[in-house]
Design goal:
It is built from 9 helices and 3 strands; from the N terminus they run ααααααβββααα. The chain has a 3-stranded antiparallel β-sheet, with no helix packed on it. It is mainly α. It is globular.
């Protein structure tokens, strides 16, 4: 577990390459996947470590060992990150929701969605804002105004400091937004049946993805 954490901390992805300069289409697609896959894996590993600790706390609680002060503090921070209401008097009140939200996304699913939303890393939003997944934001100046935005619309396409930040937002979005509860329910059922999480299975829960 320590080695995994060190791997996540030390991983530093390169800036987004100029995929438009790769004229051969199969080579461009391969380069895109090879660039993005390690970033998705690193973010998944961060989430996997969170899930590991969460399940350890829940298993201990099931055996009669209530979470101590450090675990309670950690659960409070985790609840804030995953947008689950925190109850200091009942620190495990949100455990069911947390266990459904704190989980990984298949790498293949992230790669296909990124390719689709960003035109294989060549869209304006990808190259100017590191936004590979089409995320929106709603504060003036938070991103890039779409050229074809309706006059009465207020959204912008979110800008990120790095591609990794965009990937982290993507995982967070799937793990917290109400629209993707179907994906989380599918994932939970697969976990309960001790079955592998696959892109094809979880894609069934993404009908409302913008």
């Amino acid at each position: 577990a320590i080695a995994a954490v060190l791997l996540v901390v030390s991983f530093r992805p390169r800036p987004l390459p100029d995929f438009d300069a790769i004229e051969d289409i199969p080579a461009r697609k391969q380069a895109f996947f090879e660039y993005l896959a390690p970033i998705v894996r690193a973010e998944n590993e961060r989430v996997r470590e969170q899930r590991r600790r969460l399940l350890e706390i829940l298993d201990a609680a099931a055996a009669g060992d209530a979470p101590g002060w450090l675990d309670r503090r950690w659960l409070e921070k985790l609840s804030a990150e995953y947008e689950v209401e925190w109850n200091a008097d009942r620190p495990l009140a949100g455990a069911e929701t947390l266990s459904r939200r704190v989980d990984v996304v298949p790498v293949a699913l992230a790669l296909v969605q990124a390719a689709t939303e960003s035109g294989w890393g060549r869209s304006r939003f990808a190259t100017e804002a590191n936004n590979l997944f089409g995320h929106w934001c709603y504060e003036p100046g938070c991103g890039i105004v779409p050229a074809r935005r309706n006059r009465d619309a207020a959204h912008e396409v979110a800008a990120f400091e790095s591609v990794r930040e965009s990937v982290a937002r993507y995982l967070h979005n799937l793990n917290t937004h109400a629209a993707y509860l179907p994906l989380r329910m599918i994932r939970e059922r697969l976990r309960a049946a001790d079955r592998r999480l696959t892109a094809m299975a979880l894609a069934e829960g993404l009908e409302r993805y913008s």
